[in-house]
Structure formats: structure tokens, C-alpha cells
Amino acid sequence: MEKVFISLGSNLEAERCVREAVRRLGRVGKVLGISNVWRTEAIGGMGQDDYYNAVALVQTELGAREVKGVLRVIEGELGRKKGRDKWAARTIDLDIVLYGDRVIDEEGLRVPDPDIGQRGFLAMGIWELEPGLVMPGRGERIAEIARRLGGIKMVRLEGYTRGLRAEIAQGIESE
Q: Which end of the chain has fewer CB atoms surrounding its CB within 10 Å, N or C?
């Protein structure tokens, strides 16, 4: 069994799409928890709505490529359309940010996700879920990365997060 940290992001129907994505993560494995959900400004997309961003922790027997495949299916079910614009608005974006203590650098799969060092919601989310974590392949503590990025503009969505955590506590069924 591996612990997998999965990022969630949405700025189209964000409240609904993040909730639905969390509900469907049971297909990957047992959902152990979710970080705070943060509202952040869209990167590169002038005039876009803000994003809802979070990190989920899932325990799974699936390999990294299998997890990625399940995440792409969930994105499709929630209306994600990928185009040429890397910064386009999206219903949901799901990515593996950490897969156990493994370092993976293959076509279409880089773990740990290189954005952990630039995106506060990723570092903070991982830190909230596993504060003592040491970054695989880098030896840097997630607490240090989170501290460095903690001042980046993010708004914690406390009520929304409480609702998601209540659903997780009741148990998300695998499909």
C-alpha cells in the first residue's frame, strides 16, 4: 500500500467539482484526509475566476500510472477539456504530487511534482496532512517549503473544508 498525495484544482463550478472529485477519489483507494481548501488567483489566466485548491491523501494498491489513469477518467466525467492553453479555466485538475517515497521522472509523470516548491497550496496542503514529511529525492522537509510559501496570497475556505472532511469521515465508497 502506498500513500498518494493528489492535488485538486477547479475554477469552473469549483464548489461542485472539487466536492465531486473528492467523492470519486475512492476509486483510487481509501481517502485518508484532505487539506484545507484554498481560494487562489488563477495563474496566467487574466479575467478567470479564482481557483479552489486542495490536496487529498489516499492510500492505494494501484501503481502510479494506474492512479494517473483513474484521475484522468474522473476529470473527463467532470467535464475537463484539455486544449492548447495550459492556463485555461477548468472544471477539475487532478494530479499526483507525491507517490509514497518514490521519485518518478517519466514521460507524462513527474513525482514529486515540481510545482510543490512554487505553489503554496500544494506545500501547505501536504504539510497539513503529514507535517513531518521529507521530500523524496530532495531531503527537504515539507514544513520548510510550506513556511517559505506561507505568505503567498491564499484564502482558507474553512466552512467548505469542514463539509468535505465530514463526508470523508463518513467514508467515501470505492466504486
A: C
Q: Where are the beta strands (DSSP E) in 19-103?
A: 30-34, 38-40, 51-60, 93-99
Residues designated catalytic: 80, 90, 93, 95
**Angstrom distances, CA of residue 117 to CA of 8, 40, 97, 124, 138:** 17, 16, 11, 10, 11
Domains of the chain plus CATH, in order, are: 2-170 (3.30.70.560)
pTM over 0.90: yes
Q: Residue 44: what pLDDT? A: 67
Quote the mean pLDDT of the chain: 92
pLDDT in tens, 55-105: 999 999 999 999 999 999 999 999 887 766 666 778 999 999 999 999 999
Distance CA 45, CA 166 (A): 32
